[in-house]
Specification:
alpha+beta; Membrane-bound Lytic Murein Transglycosylase D, Chain A; L,D-transpeptidase catalytic domain-like; ten-stranded mixed beta sheet; two-stranded antiparallel ribbon; 5 helices
Length: about 250
């Protein structure tokens, strides 16, 4: 009996060993995947196709050049308004959130006090807003998301023009200017007057900052101001006419 049991166990062991010896050899493990290598700084997109990954080169999309609108194109953004009794040009402009000067320009008015009942004017519903791009050294005007036109500017020396979101606090014509170094007051009739003809303030005194004109054409596109945004005269008068108190000014790096 013991001999039969030993023979049976021996046969079982041989059978198991035989099964193991007949298994096909295991395939070698796959080599580790090579990491994707980017040549230079070219951007790639990896598209999953269910099999191997496909790498597609992506060319940078060129920036769209914004074209300044002509005054005729700007006028096309407006609608007709018929003057009624009691109207003033400043009142009409105020109700439509634009500067009085803009209505003068759009309608070719020489005297803003000489509008008449029944006269049809072109008006635009504002407000307009300003974006100053410090990297491009430009001030751009927008109506909502519609680009209107841009102006090259002078910015603050040593990157002193502030960045952030502001609003127009004051609009002044030919205000006296105080030299920040010697506190000398310079008025608009002085040949050394530096503000052009318009001042658009977005940070109040002391240490006020604003958008204003300049006659120093050679400094446009450079950092040369005390921190204000300078526009070559008389372009500052256009910007002044578009904006109202409360208009948004955004200054980006």
């Amino acid at each position: 009996m013991k001999m039969r049991l030993f023979i049976g166990l021996s046969a079982s062991v041989l059978l198991i060993a035989g099964c193991a010896s007949q298994r096909p050899p295991m395939p070698p493990p796959p080599p580790p995947e090579e990491p994707l290598e980017l040549v230079g700084e070219e951007e790639v997109i990896i598209i999953e196709t269910g099999g191997e990954e496909e790498i597609v080169d992506v060319e940078e999309t060129p920036a769209v050049e914004l074209i300044d609108l002509s005054w005729e194109e700007i006028k096309d953004l407006g609608t007709d308004y018929k003057v009624v009794k009691g109207d003033t040009l400043s009142g009409i402009a105020g109700r439509h959130n634009v500067g009085t000067g803009l209505l003068e320009r759009l309608n070719g008015l020489k005297n803003p006090d000489m509008i008449r009942i029944g006269q049809t004017l072109t008006v635009i519903e504002g407000p307009f807003r300003v974006v100053v791009d410090k990297s491009d050294m430009k001030l751009s005007l927008y109506l909502g998301d519609t680009f209107i036109r841009s102006y090259p500017v002078t910015l603050g020396a040593k990157n002193s023009t502030p960045e952030g979101e502001f609003t127009v606090l004051r609009k002044l014509k030919n205000p006296p200017w105080t030299d920040p170094y010697n506190r000398t007051i310079i008025r608009a009739d002085n040949p050394e007057y530096p503000l052009g003809t318009r001042w658009i303030e977005f940070i109040p005194p002391p240490g006020a900052y604003g958008i204003h004109g300049t006659s120093k054409e050679a400094e446009i596109g450079t950092e040369a101001s005390f921190g204000c945004v300078r526009i070559l005269h008389p372009q500052e008068e256009e910007v002044f006419d578009f904006l109202i108190l409360g208009s948004q000014i955004v200054i980006t790096p």
